[in-house]
Amino acid sequence: MAQIPTKMNQTRYSGVASALALPTELQRTAQFHFEFQKSFLLFCLCRMPLSCQLSVLSWVDKASCVSQVAEQLMTIAYENGVNLFDTAEVYAGGKAETERGLNRKHIIEGLRSSLQRMQLEYVDVVFANRPDSNTPMEEIVRAMTHVINQGMSMYWGTSRWSAMEIMEAYSVARQFNLIPPVCEQAEYNFFQRDKVETQLPELYHKIVPWSSDDYLASCGIITGKYENGIPECSRASMKPYAWLKEKIVSEDGRKQQAKLKELTTISEKLGCTLPQLAIAWCLRNEGVSSVLLGTSSPIQLAENLRAMEVIPKMTAGIVTEIDHVLGNRPHSKKDFHQAH
Length: 340
Description:
The chain is α/β, with parallel strands linked by helices. The protein has helices at residues 24-27, 67-79, 104-118, 137-149, 163-175, 194-199, 215-218, 242-249, 251-270, 274-283, 298-305, 316-326, 333-339, and strands at residues 15-21, 39-46, 54-60, 82-88, 123-129, 153-159, 183-187, 208-213, 290-295. The protein has a 9-stranded mixed beta barrel with strand order 1-4-3-2-9-8-7-6-5, surrounded by 5 helices. Strand 2 (39-46) and strand 3 (54-60) form a beta hairpin. Helix 4 packs across helix 5 (163-175) and helix 9 (251-270) runs antiparallel to helix 12 (316-326). The two termini are 38 Å apart.
């Protein structure tokens, strides 16, 4: 479960996100979740045991995706083994935020408000979404330790923090006998690889990279719909997503579309769609436990869920073939030592 920035105003928000295990009786009356959400749902596929294999993140995004559709998607996800759901203040473009930042006041009040809206006593994990340079690390770790000790959350994790920032939080926790973060949410996809493949492995013995998000999938970039321009009614055609349109029509964006077109040949050879290939590619990394992806319709969700069937097909030869097309495989310390 990972935070995906809306970038409505090109702002890098710091805030609080939470993940919870949703019991059947709450899932059957999921409308409590949608009083403030016309939701675009993000589903998480992972390498965990079945009970934790899938999870859902609700991201306020499309007005056309009304609460009834969101409830339908949650039901389908739940019936397919999803029992973790993720939400955050930032998902309404900042409108749902009580404050910004990771100061003690915001962490405690923000989580308490989220619990009240969701009619829950606690969440399983509370995430610090993006680092906050204006708040001392000790204050952040102490606040997270407080909400855990108060029974508001079981654990806390980081989202899109650098390896150095994660280590600082870990060191502060050890120094003052506080609770360290247990997981990191990192952006990981075909074109964003360095952090997950070269930086986070150094932390695997201390912190679990519990989930990563396929940002390109969530923005619809890898579906191929932007190959010939910006279709009407697509997210990139919406005014708040001008940043996405600029990204797609840029030189780098055109190069990415060309590479995705090449990758389509590989997906066809495996008998899957390009989004399914992208998801399976992320999960083939033994350091990745889960992948967040976006869906706004039952049909799209069904397609995404079938990505699990593609994982066994991700042989060393296929991965090498994908690396050859992408041409961006980062070199790890392991590669350096093998070369010498």
